[in-house]
Design a protein that fits this description.
The complex is a heterodimer. Chain A is mainly β. Chain A contains no helices and twelve strands. In chain A, the strands form three sheets. In chain A, strands 2, 5, 6, 10, 11 and 12 form a six-stranded mixed sheet that branches. Chain B is mainly beta. In chain B, the strands form three sheets. In chain B, strands 2, 5, 6, 7, 10, 11 and 12 form a seven-stranded mixed sheet that branches. The chains are: A mainly beta, B mainly beta.
Chain lengths: ~110, ~110
């Protein structure tokens, strides 16, 4: 079965710092890729998704992610984080109707 | 606004009890899922369903069962609750492969 790896368990940044969260997956075929965010006390929400086309996808709240097929990666980026970005971020990969989630990365942004 | 509603936000149950977790979606989605979320382990799939009265085991089905008698409702059943089933349970639905999941708010279950 495919697997999804998120390299960072906990990231701590100051406001205005740039963010990059890593995500790698193991499946070699066609995949749909997602990033979800879970703010404290709230439900998981879709941040952005990639199905095909431009490998650089833009999501809500200034987030973007780049699909690099050769590296099996789908890293999440934001140029300047805010305190309100404090949350847990999950990468997910769907292949053949089998959706797998990474273990999550907790982001803490210091004001 | 589309919604997935989980009946309870917090539950405390005793070991050995039969526990029902309810999930209802109002989006006419065919596909529904139950996950448990544990720190450092991410989301692990317990059961899923692609149609009424249809169910499939996920990665960790042991100790759980499900019921889908109506399209909008997908219930998770803990036959005999144990302390290692203390967790956050998430229900999700989707209309297909190319769409993201819509999640409920979760049920935090504590088994004592």
């Amino acid at each position: 079965a495919q697997s999804v790896s998120q390299h960072n368990h906990h990231v701590i940044l100051s406001e205005a710092a740039s963010l990059e969260l890593g995500c790698n997956y193991s499946y070699g075929g066609t995949v749909n890729l997602f990033w979800y965010v879970q703010y404290p006390g709230q439900h998981l929400q879709l941040l952005l998704k990639y199905f095909s086309g431009d490998p650089l996808v833009k999501g809500i709240k200034g987030f973007e992610a780049e699909f690099i097929k050769s590296k099996f990666s789908f890293n999440l980026r934001k140029p300047s984080v805010q305190w309100s970005d404090t949350a847990e971020y999950f990468c997910a990969v769907n292949a053949n109707n089998d959706m797998r989630f990474g273990a999550g990365t907790r982001l803490t942004v210091k004001p | 606004d589309v919604k997935v509603t989980q009946s309870s936000r917090y539950l405390v149950k005793r070991t050995g009890e039969k526990v029902f977790l309810e999930c209802v979606q109002d989006m006419d989605h065919e596909n529904m899922f139950w996950y448990r979320q544990d720190p450092g382990l991410g989301l692990r799939l317990i059961y899923f369903s692609y149609d009424v009265k249809m169910k499939e085991k996920g990665d960790i089905p042991e100790g759980y069962s499900v019921s889908r008698e109506k399209k909008e409702r997908f219930s998770l059943i803990l036959e005999s609750a144990s302390t290692n089933q203390t967790s956050m349970y998430l229900c999700a639905s989707t209309s297909g492969d190319n769409y993201g999941y819509t999640f409920g708010s979760g049920t935090r279950l504590t088994v004592v």
